[in-house]
Write a structure and sequence with these properties.
Largest sheet: 6 strands, mixed
Number of domains: 2
Order of helices and strands: HEEEEHEEHEHEEH
Shape: globular
CATH superfamily of the largest domain: Cytidine Deaminase, domain 2
Bound molecules: zinc ion
Protein backbone atom coordinates (compact mmCIF):
# COMPACT_ATOMS: atom_id res chain seq x y z
CA UNK A 1 0.00 0.00 0.00
CA UNK A 2 2.87 2.37 0.91
CA UNK A 3 4.33 1.65 -2.47
CA UNK A 4 1.08 2.63 -4.17
CA UNK A 5 0.97 5.92 -2.27
CA UNK A 6 4.56 6.72 -3.16
CA UNK A 7 3.88 5.99 -6.81
CA UNK A 8 0.93 8.37 -6.76
CA UNK A 9 3.19 11.09 -5.35
CA UNK A 10 5.89 10.47 -7.88
CA UNK A 11 3.77 10.37 -11.01
CA UNK A 12 1.31 13.15 -10.34
CA UNK A 13 2.81 16.54 -11.32
CA UNK A 14 0.48 18.59 -9.20
CA UNK A 15 1.01 19.87 -5.71
CA UNK A 16 -0.23 17.77 -2.83
CA UNK A 17 -0.37 18.07 0.87
CA UNK A 18 -1.29 15.64 3.59
CA UNK A 19 -3.96 16.52 6.13
CA UNK A 20 -5.09 14.53 9.15
CA UNK A 21 -8.29 12.61 8.66
CA UNK A 22 -11.27 14.86 9.24
CA UNK A 23 -14.70 13.98 8.00
CA UNK A 24 -15.74 17.63 8.42
CA UNK A 25 -13.24 19.21 6.01
CA UNK A 26 -15.35 21.49 3.82
CA UNK A 27 -15.33 20.06 0.34
CA UNK A 28 -15.40 23.41 -1.42
CA UNK A 29 -11.93 24.02 -0.01
CA UNK A 30 -10.47 21.43 -2.32
CA UNK A 31 -10.54 20.91 -6.02
CA UNK A 32 -10.53 17.21 -5.60
CA UNK A 33 -9.67 14.51 -3.14
CA UNK A 34 -7.29 12.20 -4.88
CA UNK A 35 -7.03 9.31 -2.52
CA UNK A 36 -8.77 8.54 0.68
CA UNK A 37 -5.95 6.44 2.01
CA UNK A 38 -7.63 5.45 5.26
CA UNK A 39 -9.64 2.99 3.26
CA UNK A 40 -6.51 0.99 3.85
CA UNK A 41 -6.41 -0.09 7.48
CA UNK A 42 -2.89 1.05 8.17
CA UNK A 43 -3.20 4.68 7.15
CA UNK A 44 -5.44 7.56 8.20
CA UNK A 45 -4.57 10.52 5.98
CA UNK A 46 -6.28 12.33 3.19
CA UNK A 47 -4.21 13.16 0.16
CA UNK A 48 -5.63 16.37 -1.05
CA UNK A 49 -5.11 18.28 -4.26
CA UNK A 50 -4.99 21.98 -3.39
CA UNK A 51 -6.04 24.67 -5.87
CA UNK A 52 -3.16 26.73 -7.28
CA UNK A 53 -2.23 29.68 -5.12
CA UNK A 54 -3.59 32.96 -6.42
CA UNK A 55 -1.83 36.28 -6.15
CA UNK A 56 -3.77 38.94 -4.40
CA UNK A 57 -4.70 41.49 -7.11
CA UNK A 58 -6.80 44.29 -5.67
CA UNK A 59 -9.77 45.21 -7.83
CA UNK A 60 -9.58 48.61 -9.45
CA UNK A 61 -11.42 50.67 -12.01
CA UNK A 62 -10.09 52.53 -15.03
CA UNK A 63 -11.91 55.57 -16.34
CA UNK A 64 -11.45 56.93 -19.84
CA UNK A 65 -12.58 60.45 -20.44
CA UNK A 66 -13.31 62.11 -23.74
CA UNK A 67 -13.39 65.84 -24.24
CA UNK A 68 -15.74 67.21 -26.91
CA UNK A 69 -16.02 70.87 -27.77
CA UNK A 70 -19.34 71.71 -29.42
CA UNK A 71 -19.38 74.76 -31.66
CA UNK A 72 -22.09 76.29 -33.76
CA UNK A 73 -21.15 77.08 -37.32
CA UNK A 74 -20.70 80.80 -36.64
CA UNK A 75 -18.26 79.97 -33.83
CA UNK A 76 -15.85 78.09 -36.10
CA UNK A 77 -12.50 79.60 -37.01
CA UNK A 78 -11.86 80.40 -40.68
CA UNK A 79 -9.68 77.27 -41.01
CA UNK A 80 -12.28 75.07 -39.35
CA UNK A 81 -15.05 76.46 -41.53
CA UNK A 82 -12.98 75.87 -44.66
CA UNK A 83 -12.52 72.23 -43.70
CA UNK A 84 -16.23 71.83 -42.94
CA UNK A 85 -17.06 73.32 -46.34
CA UNK A 86 -14.68 70.88 -48.06
CA UNK A 87 -16.26 67.93 -46.26
CA UNK A 88 -19.76 69.12 -47.15
CA UNK A 89 -18.76 69.61 -50.78
CA UNK A 90 -17.24 66.13 -50.88
CA UNK A 91 -20.62 64.56 -50.03
CA UNK A 92 -21.81 65.59 -53.50
CA UNK A 93 -19.03 63.51 -55.05
CA UNK A 94 -19.92 60.34 -53.17
CA UNK A 95 -20.89 57.16 -54.99
CA UNK A 96 -23.72 55.75 -52.90
CA UNK A 97 -26.26 54.10 -55.22
CA UNK A 98 -27.14 51.47 -52.61
CA UNK A 99 -27.35 53.31 -49.29
CA UNK A 100 -28.11 56.78 -50.70
CA UNK A 101 -26.17 57.97 -47.67
CA UNK A 102 -23.51 60.40 -48.85
CA UNK A 103 -20.47 61.02 -46.68
CA UNK A 104 -17.66 63.48 -47.26
CA UNK A 105 -14.35 63.78 -45.47
CA UNK A 106 -11.75 66.53 -45.69
CA UNK A 107 -8.20 66.20 -44.43
CA UNK A 108 -5.94 69.13 -43.68
CA UNK A 109 -2.22 68.44 -43.94
CA UNK A 110 0.59 70.12 -42.04
CA UNK A 111 1.43 72.42 -44.98
CA UNK A 112 -2.20 73.53 -45.25
CA UNK A 113 -3.11 71.36 -48.23
CA UNK A 114 -6.66 70.05 -48.05
CA UNK A 115 -7.57 66.67 -49.51
CA UNK A 116 -11.09 65.32 -49.61
CA UNK A 117 -12.77 61.96 -50.15
CA UNK A 118 -16.25 60.49 -50.20
CA UNK A 119 -17.82 57.10 -49.64
CA UNK A 120 -17.44 54.78 -52.61
CA UNK A 121 -19.89 51.90 -52.61
CA UNK A 122 -19.87 48.69 -54.61
CA UNK A 123 -22.43 46.04 -55.55
CA UNK A 124 -20.26 43.66 -53.53
CA UNK A 125 -20.88 45.72 -50.39
CA UNK A 126 -17.66 45.03 -48.40
CA UNK A 127 -15.61 46.15 -51.40
CA UNK A 128 -16.70 49.76 -50.94
CA UNK A 129 -14.88 52.24 -48.75
CA UNK A 130 -15.86 54.95 -46.27
CA UNK A 131 -15.16 58.60 -46.98
CA UNK A 132 -12.66 58.95 -44.12
CA UNK A 133 -10.48 56.10 -45.32
CA UNK A 134 -10.73 57.24 -48.94
CA UNK A 135 -9.47 60.69 -47.93
CA UNK A 136 -6.76 59.50 -45.54
CA UNK A 137 -5.39 56.84 -47.87
CA UNK A 138 -5.32 59.32 -50.72
CA UNK A 139 -3.61 61.97 -48.55
CA UNK A 140 -0.99 59.51 -47.33
CA UNK A 141 -0.32 58.15 -50.81
CA UNK A 142 -0.25 61.55 -52.53
CA UNK A 143 1.57 63.45 -49.75
CA UNK A 144 3.41 60.81 -47.69
CA UNK A 145 5.69 63.41 -46.07
CA UNK A 146 2.88 65.65 -44.90
CA UNK A 147 1.39 64.67 -41.54
CA UNK A 148 -2.38 65.00 -41.19
CA UNK A 149 -3.34 67.81 -38.86
CA UNK A 150 -7.12 67.84 -38.93
CA UNK A 151 -10.05 65.87 -40.33
CA UNK A 152 -13.69 66.77 -40.86
CA UNK A 153 -16.63 64.49 -41.68
CA UNK A 154 -20.07 65.48 -42.97
CA UNK A 155 -22.97 63.42 -44.31
CA UNK A 156 -26.31 63.76 -46.07
CA UNK A 157 -29.20 61.40 -45.47
CA UNK A 158 -31.29 59.53 -48.04
CA UNK A 159 -33.31 62.70 -48.67
CA UNK A 160 -30.15 64.65 -49.41
CA UNK A 161 -30.23 66.71 -46.22
CA UNK A 162 -27.20 67.19 -44.02
CA UNK A 163 -27.49 65.25 -40.76
CA UNK A 164 -28.61 67.15 -37.71
CA UNK A 165 -26.56 65.02 -35.36
CA UNK A 166 -22.79 65.07 -35.97
CA UNK A 167 -21.71 61.98 -37.84
CA UNK A 168 -19.07 59.78 -36.26
CA UNK A 169 -16.56 57.48 -38.00
CA UNK A 170 -17.14 53.72 -37.97
CA UNK A 171 -14.86 51.39 -36.02
CA UNK A 172 -12.73 50.39 -39.01
CA UNK A 173 -12.11 54.04 -39.89
CA UNK A 174 -11.17 54.83 -36.30
CA UNK A 175 -8.53 52.12 -36.46
CA UNK A 176 -7.10 53.53 -39.71
CA UNK A 177 -7.25 57.09 -38.40
CA UNK A 178 -5.43 56.03 -35.24
CA UNK A 179 -2.55 54.68 -37.30
CA UNK A 180 -2.53 57.89 -39.36
CA UNK A 181 -2.25 59.81 -36.10
CA UNK A 182 0.62 57.66 -34.89
CA UNK A 183 2.27 58.00 -38.29
CA UNK A 184 1.89 61.79 -38.07
CA UNK A 185 3.37 61.69 -34.52
CA UNK A 186 0.87 64.36 -33.67
CA UNK A 187 -2.71 64.47 -32.51
CA UNK A 188 -5.20 64.73 -35.37
CA UNK A 189 -8.11 66.99 -34.49
CA UNK A 190 -11.48 65.66 -35.60
CA UNK A 191 -14.46 67.79 -36.59
CA UNK A 192 -17.78 65.96 -36.78
CA UNK A 193 -20.28 68.07 -38.63
CA UNK A 194 -24.01 68.21 -37.90
CA UNK A 195 -26.46 71.02 -38.52
CA UNK A 196 -27.10 71.11 -34.75
CA UNK A 197 -23.41 71.75 -34.09
CA UNK A 198 -19.88 70.66 -34.79
CA UNK A 199 -18.16 68.29 -32.38
CA UNK A 200 -14.46 69.00 -32.08
CA UNK A 201 -12.36 66.19 -30.62
CA UNK A 202 -8.73 66.75 -29.80
CA UNK A 203 -7.31 63.42 -30.89
CA UNK A 204 -8.23 60.25 -32.76
CA UNK A 205 -7.06 58.32 -29.70
CA UNK A 206 -10.01 59.76 -27.78
CA UNK A 207 -12.31 58.01 -30.27
CA UNK A 208 -10.71 54.62 -29.69
CA UNK A 209 -9.80 53.96 -26.07
CA UNK A 210 -8.04 50.67 -25.27
CA UNK A 211 -7.04 50.54 -28.90
CA UNK A 212 -4.82 47.98 -30.60
CA UNK A 213 -1.71 49.33 -32.26
CA UNK A 214 1.80 48.37 -33.30
CA UNK A 215 3.03 48.51 -29.72
CA UNK A 216 1.40 45.12 -29.16
CA UNK A 217 3.25 43.48 -32.05
ZN1 LIG B 1 -15.83 54.02 -41.85
Amino acid sequence: MVLIVLLVFLFRRQRYTILPKQETIPRYFFQSIMIRADSFDSCSFFFVHLPPQKKDYPMKELDFHMHVLVKQEDELTAEELQLVDEARRATYRSYAPYSHFSVGAAVELADGTIVSGSNQENAAYPSGLCAERTAVFYANSRYPDQPIRRLCIAARDTEGKFLQRPISPCGACRQVLLEAEQRAKNAIEVLLYGTDGVYIIRSIKDLLPLSFDESFL
